[in-house]
Amino acid sequence: FDSSKYLKQILPFPVGASVNPRLLGENTSYRGVVESEFSSLTAENHMKMALIHPESDRFDFTKGDEIVAFAKKNKSRVHGHTLVWHNQTAQWMKDFQGDQQAWENLLKNHIQTIVKHYQGQIAGWDVVNEAFLDDGSLRPSIWADHIPDYLAKCFVWAHEADPQVLLFYNDYGQDGKPKKMEAILNMVQDFKKRQIPIDGLGLQMHISIQSKKEEIKQIIEQSTATGLRIHFSEVDIAVNPKNNPDFVLDDTILQTQSDKFQWLFSSFGAIPRKQQYGITFWNVGDKDSWLRGYFKRPKEYPLLFDENYQRKSAYQELYQRL
Ligand code: XIL
Fold it and tell me: I want to staple 93 with a disulfide (CB 3.0 to 4.6 A). Which of 52, 89, 247, 290 is the partner?
């Protein structure tokens, strides 16, 4: 294991992490790992609707701009996450009253203002995030409820604002949920038929050591068969998915997790080169993971770096096998 080299130097595709600008600013270890290991950055939260567009007539690009500036200094790519989602919408959006035209104006303005702001600085956008339920139906949301055919419209609006930027549909948990996967594939087919622009599919890959490889393999193959670019967009591998309070991390579990990381990377490597958009981890060290913060699962260790930003055994083994 040659510890003087970094992931981004040995991988033939972009490898990234979602980042928290507060940690980038105040934690030098966190910042150091981000600078040296990763070639692509995503804002974990700060480009989401509520944060970037807190009032109807006010956008707040401060934190997003910080991440973009940091990435530029570090010669990293930036992936935009996410223009439209049912979660983390602003209160004023939830309270909004208006007819279909008014809703369309709101969403079009939201998308186009952001896309134009970051034109030339962001490689690709998650245009819509998590629009389908497990049964393949369209997820109810303020957008779906007020704007017929909103998925297609969002992609068209984004493309109008910046014809160069890559447009992704991003979702989670397609493995073992054939109806959900089918809905996504149908959307892609429909878009192609109607010439609605779409460039890629984001597979979030919030998986666990128990996730079934055959099921994941299948959704990778199905997604790849569309010919679109593929992004493993939010990778983490939970070791204690049931949040067992008595969980103890041991070498066997670490080894299982390590094997899964290696398998995931080699599965990505098997995708045709020109379809490989990259792999993004959902934050950096175990303690930064949303599984700890958002889901309050203190005994979870889903990433490649430990609490002190040291490379875990999974990192070292992955590295050796790359
Ligand atoms: C999560 C963030 O990690 C948390 O900090 C936040 O509180 C909630 O959102 N799918 C996504 C991401 O597309 O935006 C989510 O991020 C995790 C699930």
Answer: 89
The contacts of residue 322 (CB under 8 Å, 6+ apart) are: 10, 11, 265
If one counts every other C-beta atom within 10 angstroms of the C-beta of residue 74, the result is 15
Go through the domains of the chain in sequence order and give each one's CATH number.
80-279+286-321 (3.20.20.80)
Residue whose Cα lies nearest atom 12 of ligand 1: it is: 44
Q: Is residue 132 within 6 Å of ligand 1 at its C-beta? A: no
The span from the first CA to the last CA of the chain, in angstroms, equals 11
pLDDT, tens digit only, all 322 positions of the chain: 778 899 999 999 999 999 999 999 999 999 999 999 999 999 999 999 999 999 999 999 999 999 999 999 999 999 999 999 999 999 999 999 999 999 999 999 999 999 999 999 999 999 999 999 999 999 999 999 999 999 999 999 999 999 999 999 999 999 999 999 999 999 999 999 999 999 999 999 999 999 999 999 999 999 999 999 999 999 999 999 999 999 999 999 999 999 999 999 999 999 999 999 999 999 999 999 999 999 999 999 999 999 999 999 999 988 888 7
**E-only strand ranges, 108-266:** 124-129, 166-171, 200-203, 206-208, 229-238
78 secondary structure, DSSP code: E
Q: Whose CA is nearest to atom 1 of ligand 1?
A: 290
Task: Establish whether residue 42 lines the binding site of ligand 1, counting it when its CB lies within 6 angstroms of any ligand atom.
Answer: no
Cβ–ligand 1 contact at 129 (below 6 Å) = yes
ipTM (interface pTM): 0.99
Nearest CA to ligand 1 atom 4: 290
